[in-house]
Amino acid sequence: LNALSDPCAEIRAEAVTLLGKFDDAKIAGPLLIPRLSDSDSWVRKNSALSLMKLRDTTSPNALQNRAKSEDDEVVLSVLKLAINQLQALTPEGVNRAETVIWTIKKGAKAPLLIEAMTSKSRKSVDQVINVALVLVQSLWAHITRSASAVTGVDE
Fold first, then answer.
1. Which pLDDT tens digit goes with each residue over 95-136?
2. C-alpha span between 129 and 72 (Å, rounded)
3. What is the pLDDT averaged over residues 78-83?
């Protein structure tokens, strides 16, 4: 814990990285959130990454607040990534992913398929694979219909 307030930024950056390897966001999260305002950009970046790795769904507000004042582009990118990943784990994010996937299964057109593939809200790897398969099947059907219309030959 002393390493979190060490005068050397490299030590603080390593300390927050180590906290991200814990399995308990309830313990590590409150220690990491204050580090989002550290004077060193590496400490801020590593803190955001650690919160994301911990899947700390209580931290998006703190990440968003930091993003409003962040002037380092790399850190800002990491903050945005962490925010998106953690929001996807909330009940609202999971519900949105399930709705998009259900819509696709019911025969959605390309814009909804694209939205599903670019959405930051994904419940599980199985759902991502399912969306990808539906996307490929839908695109293949579209391509074969287009080819048939151009050539006049049904496959």
1. 555 555 555 555 554 454 455 555 555 444 445 556 566 666
2. 34
3. 90
- Closest by CA position to 53, among listed 83, 21, 28, 75: 21
- Of residues 64, 59, 8, the one with CA closest to residue 38: 8
Q: What is the chain's Cα-based Rg?
A: 21
**Cβ distance 47 to 16 under 8 Å?**
yes
Distance, CA of 85 to CA of 67 (rounded, Å): 15
The stretches of the chain forming alpha helices (DSSP H) are 9-19, 25-32, 41-53, 60-69, 73-88, 91-105, 110-118, 125-151
Q: What type of residue sits at position 133?
A: L
pTM: 0.60
pLDDT at residue 125 in the model: 46
Q: Determine the 3-state secondary structure of 151 from DSSP.
A: helix
Token look-up 């991200």 returns 20
